[in-house]
Amino acid sequence: NIILRYIRSKPKVIVFDLDNTIWGGVIGEDGIDGIQIGDSCPGNVYKNIQSSLLRFHKYGVLLIAISKNTIENAELGLNHDEGIIKKEHLLALSASWDSKPASLLKILKENNLSQNGIYFLDDSEIEREEMSMANIDIKILNQNSSPIHLLESLLDLESNIHHTLTSDDFI
User: Fold this and answer.
1) What pLDDT score does 10 carry?
2) I want to staple 153 with a disulfide (CB 3.0 to 4.6 A). Which of 96, 104, 121, 141 is the partner?
């Protein structure tokens, strides 16, 4: 495990899905009152996922949300009263029906970002597989869709970067 801490590159960008990744449910089907985020289970797991992402943001890691959704629904979910991650924490928000790798490449190009140090978090096995098959240097954080596993993946990455952080990394 100690060796992995030095092999794994420090994250520069975390790309994540919205539905069933940073909140439970599908905003377009369940509506704002139907998504799960808050202090009771299972919403508390999603709230902790968002707390972890916010800590990464404070470490200077760029956050990008890419969702197969409408922009209106994506923004609605990000404005949830119990939510921690808001649109202003994001470098970019892509909500469309385009492929996630294509959306990510477009965002990277628009922001003149390289492809190193990018991590991806998504509940969908299909989306994780598509991203891993794309011609992008990206590390897939989670191997299954369990919200607990999503959170554990972020916490593991977070614990690994604490060994390489300096005061210059915090914003």
Assistant:
1) 79
2) 141
